Input
Amino acid sequence: MTSGPPDALREQAREWGRGLLSAAPWSAVADRVTLLLVEPPAGLYGAPAPAVSFWLTLDQEAARSLPPEYREPLTTNRAVIEHPRIADLPPATLSVTTDDALHRLLQGTTRSAMEARWLVRHVDIVSDRLRRGEQYALRANLVADDAPERIVRGLWVDAVSAARALDVMTVDPAGGLTAAGEVMGALCRLACFDHGGSYPPSSYLRAVARETRLGKRINPWLDDLTKAVSGDEVAARRIIGSRDQVIEEARTVLGERYRNRPWLRDPDAFALQPPR
Output
């Protein structure tokens, strides 16, 4: 398994992708196919590359000309996920979907949609004769006017709730693992979304968050959180002792846009409100 420089890894992956499009069944529709290398992400040099992932998209007409194992799911709005074995590369995934389906995913505000938006901004284009990559990048930067607040609000409430649960670490480090993972994930996603309007998959989340404004402010605390999960009692006491300060750091950054929002001022009360 290769774990060398990301550029070398990506070039090996691109070479495999070009070979994929020259073989059946893709060779018959190669002019209608867009092949994107999404992992390892381009430009992310400070993070490991645990996997290689491709997205292959095509239009409905091309999908109807494929063998049944592809045609039937693709023409009914389902993706096809394959795990090819590629010599000298980490575990690989090939995700096949239609152009329309990817556009609809990129319009969403779910975690999957946010991660897809981030990945689209960091792809390597292996083949794209129809220049769909430009359309995906454009879509990844468009969001409904009310969507950012809804996304930030959910992450903020989750982060505060999980931070409150960290007290268990002082008596049961293993029991605090869930809370630690939740608070780190929520804070890192907040940092990334505040910085660029999306956030990466978990594999790259911590590395990307480190480079954001909020991430730089709370990075020592997140490092201590990792130590506490490993059983460091001193680190556990530090994270609990400085927890309120970290919450305030995040509130200060978010307050630049959402200062007067009730959910930002009192997330505990907001979390108890019934759904509308």
Observations:
- Residues 6-140 form a domain with the Beta Polymerase; domain 2 fold (CATH 3.30.460.10).
- The longest helix spans residues 177-196.
